[in-house]
Every structure is written in C-alpha cells, then in structure tokens.
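Hello Y.,

Per our agreement to keep a running log of every chain we model this quarter, I'm adding this entry. I've kept the format consistent with earlier entries: sequence first, then predicted structure.
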Amino acid sequence: MTAPEIRQLPRLIDRPRFWQYIGYKPHEGQAQVHASAAPRRAMACGVRMGKTICAAMEGVVSALEPVDRSVGWVVAPNYELSDRVLRELVHVFRTKFPQRIRQYAASERKLIVTNMQGGTCEIRGKSADNPVSLLGEGLDWLIVDEAARLKAEIWQKYLSQRLVDKRGWAMLISSPRGKGWFYDEWRAGQPQWKKPGHDSWNLPTWANPRVPRAWIEEQRSMIPDAVWRQEYGAEFIEGAGQVFRNVRERATGALAEPEKGKQYFAGLDLARVNDYTVMVVVDRERRVVAFDRYTRLDWTTQVGRIAALAEKYNRASVLVDSTGAGEPVYEKLREANVRAEPYTFTSASKSALVNNLAMMLEQGKLTLPVPLVCPELVDEMDAFEFSVTESGNVKAEAPSGQHDDCVIALGLAAWAIRKDPVRMVARWT
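Predicted structure for the entry above:
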C-alpha cells in the first residue's frame, strides 16, 4: 500500500462496549493494540503475552462490521499455527453469536458469518508454505501469526498486495526473529521511525499480568540469555535463536573421493512423507566428504542407493535414524550387509545429538563443504533455531515450513565419531 492510500480505519463498532458484551477483558497491553485504528499494526510479543486472543478479537469485530461483504484471512507459516487464531475466532462465534454462522467448514478452514448489517464476512485460514494458495481476491483484513517466520517475499508478493484494492488492514503478530521484514514493519510503528498508518508494540511476556513473574524468571535459568530475551523479553536480537554458530566459517572444505584403507562414518536421516532422505559421510579428520539428498523414492530403491554409497566409502559405518518409518529400512540395510547402527529419537536423544553437533562446530572440530557445493546443508544449519512453545518448552528445530533432514544426518555422522571411532568399526571387523 503506498503512502497516500494509508489512512486511519473507521471504527464502526465501539470496541470497549463490545468487549464487555462478549465478556472479554483485555489486559493493558492488549487494550493498547485494540485502541489503535492504524491499518498496519505489528506486535512483537513474548511467549504467552496474549497476542493470539488479541488478534482473534480484532478479527471478530471486523467480521461483524456493518458492510455488504468482507473477506478476512488468517495466515501463518503452517496450518497448525494459523489454526490457533482461527480456533479463537470460531469459538467466539459459536459461543456468543451462533445464529450468525452461515457456514463453517473445518476441513477447508472457512467460516462465513452474517455481520450486523445482514451482509457477509468470509474468514479463511491459510498456510504460507504453499504460496500459490495465497493468490486470490482482495482482502478487507489480514492477520499474520508468527510473521517473523515468514519469508519476506511471502509478505511482499503474496499478502500485502491483497490489501491494496480494498485498503484493508493487517495485524502482524510474532515473537521477534532477528531483524528481517517483520522488524522493518515493527520499526515503522515506533515513534523514532514512525510512518503514516503504522502502529507497533513491544510487549514482553510480563506485560500479561496473568502470567506469574516467578515462572518467567524460572525460564531464564533454563535457556541461553539471548534466547530468553528474545522469547520472553520480545527483543530483536540478531542471531539470538541460532543453534549452530560459525556455520559458514566452518564451510571451507570440499567433497572428496574415498581413499583406500581409510575409515569413514555416515549419518542417515530417512524421508518421511514430504521430507528428504539425506546421507552425510565424514572421514576420521571430521571432514564432510560425501553428501546425498533425494525424495520420493521407494524404500527398495533407497536401500540400494544407501548401500552403494556406504560400500564406495570402504563400507562406511552408518548411524541410522531408526525411529518410526526408519525401523524397517534399518533392518533392510542390515540385510544388505550395510554396517548400520540404530539411533532412536526421543526428546533427550535429539537434544544430545544437536548439542554435540553444535559443540563440534563451536570448537572447530568439523569441516563442512563450501556453501556452493552443499547449499541445502549450510542453509538448514544456518536456519536451525531455538524456539519456545506457548507452554514454555524449549525446542531446537527447523523454522516452520522448512526441513531439518541435512542437520539430522550430519548430527548422526558427528555422533558416530564423537569419541573413539575405532570402537564403532571394531564390531564389524
């Protein structure tokens, strides 16, 4: 939306009276957001601040605005996240305005309601992991959850353009993630960088009086300080959530052909439905020498391909993710005379694997190929991050909508040689 088109939104429904009618009691931080009539609102929030319910209530009141017809979307990096806001919207209409529901199709994530003028509002839940689904008609309003996790092109090419024709409003809610496009939108609403039509707020977890301060302080001792400041303090800290440091500094090597008589170790992450099978081979000097990544191959073909690569590198010892779908493949690899060892994933074992890989990189004990040779490997490691769930649990994972197959395969290879690699080979000789 260009600057001349930005204007304050008309407030056709008295929000404080409406909140009282439906029994919603916003705390002070939420009330600040509801009081704004800016068409661009960005909330940088800590965990459990209450941003989801705040955004959902803005969607409810806009859906009821007395107009002939309106369209609103709830968008997030994946459907699981967009469902959080959508569920709140649906709950309000089901409990407070059931007679206004014209259609609700849960499988389509679509809710159509009658507004206060007898017109209609169509509300849709959308996922940004399929940009084509974001094409369509103009929008009257848009809520973007976990906005900082979206790529800039999603906002610029697919979402902001939907608002131009109808001069619609957008509410961007998120925990901070570095200083990308969401940071730019948030900064545009701050007094020192203020742009017309923009408002923004920095609301840490303790802005919500319903969250005990003792619980917030308890989390501080459980995670790195920078992560706590980002996830609870809602601070924009470059690289705060990054799990692996010095990735590109360690990406100076090259893939290499096997040397006769040399020992090699491999990590293997097997594909699930839409993921990739990845096999990473490292030598005794902890250099990545081979990398194979593919998808949509049947298990028989995969076993043959894995066995061939292991055989090529002097019958490399292969540590395999044997969890779930990996279990039968692991057995087939053993039948194919591959030196395969299982690694079962639990919360604790995955944490140990990731921590070991991070430590090896930090200490300069692992050499990756240059990014041009294995861009997927370097990019996945760069993106891998700490995140905190709404319940306060810390997770190390790929950003929503992205893959972690390369990270897990490399982590398995690094785990295989973390102590005395001779022991792993000895059982096969």
